[in-house]
Structures are given as structure tokens and as C-alpha cells.
Design brief:
By secondary structure, the chain is an alpha/beta fold. The strands form three sheets. A seven-stranded mixed beta sheet has the order 2-8-7-6-5-3-4, sandwiched between helices. The chain is globular. The N and C termini lie far apart (46 Å).
Length: 384
């Protein structure tokens, strides 16, 4: 039987490839973005508690009311924006599903979607699977900031959506107040919809704060704000996130959501709702990961790798141009097989797949693992 693929140029994601290679070669896995430590014991007990209480059947399609209400209260407290928990917040099977659902709910054939490179690898397949047209705009190479003049030049009468990601994976950059003001000007008076990927919202460093698009009166009216419990509570394997959006957008979002997953894990929703009452759990997350960033940076400061600035997320970019001329895919393979540290090459985050002599590591690991990996990286010699 002949099958015509919807995404003919797409194969296995780079995260799966590098993690598999790490296992095969017994390398330290700093590639895929997940912690190597467990979540809080109290959260585990809460899940077990609600399982034993019998909360094991379908949750409401839009999510457990207590959890949606708690999320609404958190957003209002942090970003001064009220979302009605009944009509404007939806619990999803992770942020990846929320991203796909948001894009699928509004993008149709021929619609242009602006995204910024380097871009997380799920955005483009989501656009293409809906027959949309990706419009690529590079972030500034020195600090991964936005060039809004380029955005203005790329907007057309077919522009349906702009996708933003801050804190940014893979670069660790953050949007600024000036960025928010520019985006307000660019989209005002248009029908352009925004998807704001904010899954690392609580992981910012050096006193810098996350700027949610929920905080903008102008932008919040046209934005799907997406976040993740997995990144916040060290539970990536539970695959749970949420989408906050105005009622008109949420209505379209839920039309698709109900047929993609219908609802998500019931006892875990109840557990998160209870655990979120301890605000310090997420408010202290930036300090927790800043310590790990600093441990890793300090441990490799004398290596030949150049440390790029990192203001958020739990990812660190490393430039290796003084070490090798290899394409980053080849360099990442060498690092995994020969050095024993698995990393992610940056080229899969770009449409042209060209090497920028950069790799990404994940520092959501124990301090011991970070130091062990850094010791291996210290021994890297030029011209590998």
C-alpha cells in the first residue's frame, strides 16, 4: 500500500537520536532536556493519594476545575492578567500538544506563520501539517535578540500567526519590555494571532524576570500563552501543560483539543492543583537552576569551549569554533562517541541546517554529573 507522507522531509527528532546514541555509547546525556533527579516526594504522595481516593476516570475535557482555578490565580498574581478558569484555561497533555492544538485550531492552507530561528523543532512540522507556510526570521547572532524591522518586512496579508518562545530554547535569551512594545505596535489593528511558548517561565537568572505576553493588555487579546508543569516540577514524563487564551481563541482551541486527546491524566491534575499552593516551589526555581548553570560554567571555564550568555531555561550553548571545523552534527557525534558527553547540535533548529559551530547542553542534572561531564570537556583538544 502506498502512503503519501504529510511530512516527507521529517524523520526522527534530534533529541531522540542523540539520547539513543548516548545510551549506545554509555555517554553522559546532556542532550535531551530532562532532569536526572526525581521530583518532590510530596508531589508523588499527592498523586498516590488521589489515585487511592478514586480519581482515576476521565477528567473534564478542559481540565480539573481546581487546577484551572489555581493556574488562573497564579497568572493574575504574577502577570496581572485575569483569565476566567472556566472559559480561558485548558489543561493539555504537555506543552507540545498545546502548541500543536493552538496552531491547528487557527492555521489553514496558505496561512503564513512567522517564527524565529533557532526555533524549537516542533513548530515547523505543526505548521506544515496544517498546510501553513513557515516564514523564518533569524534572531540576532550576537545575543539572540529580535530584529523587529525584519518582522515588519515579512508581514503580509497572509500572515496568520507569530510564534514566540521566551525563555528561549535553545539559546536561553529573554524577551524585553522593548520587544513587547514593538510587538504591540506591529500587531495592533491586525488579525495576527500569537503563540507564546513560555514553558520555562520560572527559570530565569541574575535577577531578570520573565515577561509573559499575558501581562500585555494589547497582546493578551490575541495570544495563546502555553506553559508546562513538567519543566516547573521536574516531571517531564508526566506530559502535562496548559494553555491560557481569551475566550474566542480558547473556544477554537478546545474544538481541536477534544478530538486530539479529549482530557489528560486525572490524579496528576488534582495533585498539581494541591502542590501549586506552595508558591515557593516555582518561585525558587530560577535560583535552583542558576546554581546548576554556574556550577557547569565554572567547571568548564578553562576549556576551549566558548560559553554563550544564558539568561534562562536549563540549556547552555557552547561554541566550539576554536576546537574544530566539523559540522555540528558530526561534532555532536564525536562528542558522544569519543568524549563521552552527548550534546545537541544547533543546526536542526534552523531551516537551512547549516552549522554555526554551536551545541546545546542541558544542565538539569546533578552537580556531580555536571562536574563529571565538565571534566571530560576540559580535555577537548583543538582540531578534533
Amino acid at each position: 500500500m502506498k502512503v503519501i507522507p504529510k511530512l516527507p522531509e521529517w524523520g526522527t527528532s534530534i533529541f531522540t537520536i542523540m539520547s539513543r546514541m548516548a545510551v549506545e555509547h554509555k555517554a553522559i546525556n546532556l542532550a535531551q532536556g530532562f532532569p536526572d533527579f526525581n521530583c518532590n516526594e510530596e508531589l508523588l504522595e499527592l498523586v498516590h493519594h488521589f489515585q487511592k481516593k478514586g480519581f482515576n476516570q476521565y477528567a473534564p475535557m478542559q481540565g480539573v476545575p481546581n487546577l484551572r482555578k489555581t493556574i488562573s490565580e497564579k497568572i493574575e498574581k504574577l502577570y496581572d492578567r485575569h483569565y476566567d478558569f472556566e472559559n480561558e484555561i485548558t489543561i493539555t497533555a504537555g506543552a507540545t500538544q498545546a502548541l500543536y492544538t493552538a496552531i491547528t485550531s487557527v492555521v489553514v492552507a496558505g496561512d503564513e506563520v512567522i517564527l524565529f530561528e533557532p526555533a524549537y523543532d516542533s513548530y515547523v512540522p505543526d505548521i506544515l501539517s496544517n498546510r501553513g507556510v513557515p516564514v523564518y526570521i533569524p534572531l540576532n547572532t550576537n545575543d539572540y535578540s529580535y530584529n523587529w524591522d525584519l518582522v515588519r518586512n515579512k508581514i503580509s496579508d497572509r500572515t496568520k500567526m507569530i510564534i514566540l518562545n521566551s525563555p528561549h530554547n535553545p539559546t536561553g535569551s529573554l524577551i524585553t519590555e522593548a520587544d513587547v512594545r514593538e510587538l504591540e505596535k506591529i500587531t495592533k489593528g491586525t488579525d495576527i494571532i500569537i503563540v507564546s511558548d513560555e514553558v520555562y517561565e520560572h527559570i530565569t537568572f541574575d535577577g531578570k524576570l520573565h515577561l509573559s505576553l499575558a501581562s500585555s493588555g494589547e497582546l493578551s487579546k490575541r495570544t495563546f500563552v502555553i506553559s508546562s508543569f513538567g519543566k516547573t516540577y521536574h516531571t517531564t514524563g508526566w506530559k502535562m501543560g496548559y494553555c491560557a487564551a481569551p475566550e474566542n481563541l480558547t473556544k477554537e482551541f478546545r474544538k481541536m483539543h477534544q478530538f486530539i486527546v479529549f482530557s489528560v491524566n486525572t490524579p496528576i491534575q488534582y495533585a498539581y492543583a494541591e502542590f501549586m499552593k506552595q508558591e515557593n516551589r516555582y518561585l525558587s526555581l530560577g535560583n535552583f537552576y542558576q546554581h546548576k548553570r554556574d556550577v557547569f560554567q565554572d567547571a568548564i571555564k578553562n576549556s576551549l569551549l566558548k560559553i554563550k550568555n544564558c539568561n534562562g531555561t536549563y540549556f547552555q550553548l557552547l561554541e566550539y569554533s576554536s576546537l574544530s571545523n566539523k559540522h555540528d552534527m558530526e561534532f555532536a557525534e564525536y562528542m558522544t562517541k569519543e568524549i563521552g558527553v552527548a550534546v545537541i547540535p544547533l543546526s536542526p533548529f534552523y531551516e537551512d541546517r547549516k552549522s554555526r559551530s554551536l551545541v546545546r547542553i542541558c544542565f538539569a542534572k546533578s552537580d556531580e554529573v555536571l562536574r563529571e561531564a565538565a571534566a571530560k570537556l576540559q580535555n577537548l583538544q583543538a582540531e578534533v
